[in-house]
Amino acid sequence: MTLDRSVLAFAGIMVLLSVALTVWVSSYFVWFTVFIGVNMLQSAFTGFCPAASIFRKLGIKPGTAF
Questions:
Q1: Which positions are tagged coiled coil (predicted)?
Q2: DSSP 64
Q3: Alpha-carbon separation of residue 26 from 17, 30, 36 (angstroms)
Q4: Which domain holds residue 25?
Q5: Domain assignment present for 27
Q6: For each successive 10 residues of the chain (66 residues), what is the average pLDDT?
Q7: Cα–Cα dist 3/17, whole Å
Q8: Structural domains counted in the chain
Q9: Which parts of the chain fold into alpha helices (H)?
Q10: What pLDDT, on the 0 to 100 scale, is given for residue 63?
């Protein structure tokens, strides 16, 4: 799995987790979903993604975007 696919999979898991936490635990977890969306948006414009940096250090092979 490349770095690009790893970041997309991680973002998808985090969004689903935050939605589940919002539904079943507390409505304040919606802010976690907002944070993830803002992070994805800034990554689209700047090319910097904290998750990609961490995955790169873990040895996942680079992809096209990151």
A1: none
A2: S
A3: 12, 8, 17
A4: 3-57
A5: yes
A6: 93 96 97 96 93 94 85
A7: 21
A8: 1
A9: 3-24, 30-46, 50-57
A10: 84
